[in-house]
Specification:
By secondary structure, this protein is an alpha/beta fold. 33% of the residues lie in helices and 16% in strands. It is built from ten helices and eight strands. Strands 3-2-1-4-5-6-7-8 form an eight-stranded mixed beta sheet, with helices on both faces. Strand 4, helix 4 and strand 5 form a beta-alpha-beta unit.
């Protein structure tokens, strides 16, 4: 278990959230799960995860977590409990899918990124982009540190201490870490970029991030 993170709060407990909860429990964390439908709908997942897991409201999950994962459809970002997340390290796994989320003009014109949008919604939190560019079924496939060609995942954030906390968790869960820079660089591993859901080791991930193009450049 991480020396500094004992409880992982999850706002959203779908495919990515439930896999991260499983990983967290397997590494000795406690988890507090939430979703938009209410704690009672998470009874089966809590039963699977065992005594280290419980279900709560999103506000309670935010308050309980030493680190809190936001893994919701991006259209719901305005519903995040900003007050409860103040001072928290928040992992943003969200991706922008206009068909699902509706049009968000500042993402369409690429004047901001998904994580910067969430950071603006959560001014008191310390947002780090991570776990958004891996297929949920691949999350349990991590490997120990030092494994040759170990898969790498990028992180981006404006707060270096928060980024270090998340990087330690990524490593603990079985992946090398590539620092992609500040939140403004999070677009380099967003949907449809070379780094998105494509397995790569650390060198390959850096190369993929470097090849990233803005949507406007993609045509």
């Amino acid at each position: 278990m991480s020396k500094h993170t004992k409880t992982l709060g999850l706002i959203g407990s779908g495919l990515i959230g439930s896999q991260l909860a499983r990983l967290a429990v397997s590494h000795g964390f406690h988890v507090v799960l939430s979703n938009s439908r209410g704690p009672e709908t998470l009874a089966d997942l809590v039963a699977e995860l065992g005594p280290r897991a419980r279900a709560a409201t999103s506000t309670d999950a935010a308050s309980a977590g030493d680190v809190v994962v936001v893994t919701v459809p991006l259209r719901s970002y305005r519903d995040l409990p900003a007050e409860a997340l103040a001072g928290k390290v928040v992992i943003d796994t969200c991706n922008y899918y206009p068909r699902r989320d509706g049009r968000i003009p500042e993402l369409d014109d690429e004047s901001t990124t998904t994580s910067e949008l969430i950071q603006a919604q959560l001014p008191g939190a310390r947002v780090v982009k991570a776990f958004n560019n891996i297929y949920f079924a691949d999350l349990p496939e991590g490997s120990p540190a030092g494994t040759p060609n170990r898969r790498a995942l990028p992180v981006a954030g404006d707060d270096e201490a928060a980024k270090a906390t998340v990087a330690a968790m990524v490593d603990e869960f079985g992946f090398d870490v590539v620092d992609a820079g500040p939140l403004a660089e999070g677009w380099r591993f967003q949907r449809d970029t070379p780094a998105y859901v494509t397995p790569a080791d650390a060198d390959g991930m850096r190369e993929a991030l470097g090849r990233a193009k803005r949507y406007a450049e993609m045509g």
